[in-house]
Amino acid sequence: MNLPDWKKTSVSPDQSHHLCSGKPLYDKRFDEVLKYHAPGLAPARDASGSYHIDLMGQPVYAERYQRTFGFYDGRASVVSNGRWFHLGEHGEQIYSAHYAWTGNYQEGRCTVRSESGLYSHIDRLGQPVYDAQYHYAGDFRDGVAVVQNEAGHSTHIDRDGALIHARWFADLDVFHKGFARAQDERGWHHINRSGDALYTRRFAEVEPFYNGQARAKRFDGGLEVIDERGERMLELRPGRPTPLQTLSDDMVGFWKTQTIQAGVELGVFDALPANTAEVAQRTELAERRAMRLLYGLWELELVRPDDAERWCLTECGALLGHESPSAMAYASSVWARDHYQKWQRLPDALRAEATSEKSYFKGLSGAQVATYQRAISGYARHDYAHLPETINWREHKHVIDAGGGQGVLLAQLLTAHAHLQGTLLELPQVLGTFESPGEFSGRLRALQANLFEPWPSKADAIVLARVLHDWPDSDALRILKRARQSLHPNGKLYVIEMIRPDDKPDGSLLDLNMLVMTGGRERTHSEWTKLLTDAGFHLLETRNLPSVSDILIGAIK
């Protein structure tokens, strides 16, 4: 008689018999059956008790038990009078000992629990593999099992019971693809076969690695995908900090500002890649202090250690080198020094009346002006990158960039549109740091100008990019009226500013920044419309830039 392949069988929906190709494998019906395992035997239970059946539904032996379980590695656990032990494939008892519980054989080893409640492993003949007994022992996988001592700490043992790495953890998993999940007093992480942590971060939960990635749950409830260095590769769900944590994080936000500035000022971002000793030497810091700063920058995800025990820049950290085109190193100095000091006077600024015609640059040294201009130029390169294609510049011949700093915006326009002529209007102290690009010879000129006085040039297009928010309404109106005088009758005015929404707080902190720094403000769409109307302009339309800015396009009424 040809018997079916046991691997192709399944348990019927009511668990009373087995199926093969959707048809009953035999006629008998049981109270319960479990799956077939090699060599083609399955646990079954009827009124007589529990036992094992073959592929024809026939008992393999005459004995009956309280419970029977599937065969693994040629052995099956059974229970008789509350005592657990293993049977062979013909129903023979493998060993004489009895236990309070037995597991399934895996890799020639089986976990058992003694009557005293302690765990250990036995071999295929039922002999103890080692002398030690544990408060818990798990199955073997790839020659390694997890055991737990009386203190509740877990470690790994090999098939002979020897400690793999002699390191104990609050909780532990078996190895999967060379790494194991482990929990210490700080949280969950991954370790290698030597018991060493793969990274310093800790999580509320971690999953095993799969092709070099694992899902991890942070303590704030956020989910992310990490690599084998513990670095975030993908944010799956943002965290949910408590109200106190949120408030506290906001109140100590200056920690981040000053830590970044310390890294910039000491040259850390220019020194990498390097190991800690090299960073200490290049920054003239004691090595232990350099390490503390590097760890702070690591927490901010600006630097990271690599496999060669060196520190490397992350994508964001690379923006903070002094040679980076982003100029964020200079922006860091602006925010952490001048702006930080002036923000401490916010209550006074809120109490005081607006000060008219007070330039931000008054009182700044030449070096401070240069630093500010480099920082603002970095933002301009990023924020105005799409301006050349957002507006139809073909309808213009001459563009004035009023208050345009180092002319970054104007250079972007002239590069993209060869027919344009450009004029940069700026204060003398700002033009002192300006260098006209050679490729625009004959097309770009820079003129000293006070925007409150008559302008020294006229054009058919005028750009005011983040200029008017420096000023209160009365002064912004004066600048707009001067712009109207310098705009050809059929020309257009382009005001690039963030438009604050009427019903949301977006941009309100920037609004406070303008108040404390210059006495200026951010404005809503209706406020911009009124300001332009009062200056003699008609608002034609508003367009968006991919950055935080909008473009208000106006024409002379």
TrEMBL record:
Pfam families: Dimerisation (PF08100), Methyltransf_2 (PF00891), WG_beta_rep (PF14903). PROSITE patterns: SAM_OMT_II. Keywords: Methyltransferase, S-adenosyl-L-methionine, Transferase. GO terms for biological process: methylation. It comes from the Bacteria. Residues 252-320 form the O-methyltransferase dimerisation domain. InterPro entries: COMT-like (IPR016461), COMT_C (IPR001077), COMT_dimerisation (IPR012967), SAM-dependent_MTases_sf (IPR029063), WG_beta_rep (IPR032774), WH-like_DNA-bd_sf (IPR036388), WH_DNA-bd_sf (IPR036390). Residues 392-537 form the O-methyltransferase C-terminal domain. One of its GO terms (molecular function) is O-methyltransferase activity. Transmembrane segments: none annotated. This is Methyltransferase. The lineage of its organism: Bacteria, Deltaproteobacteria, Bradymonadales, Bradymonadaceae, Bradymonas.
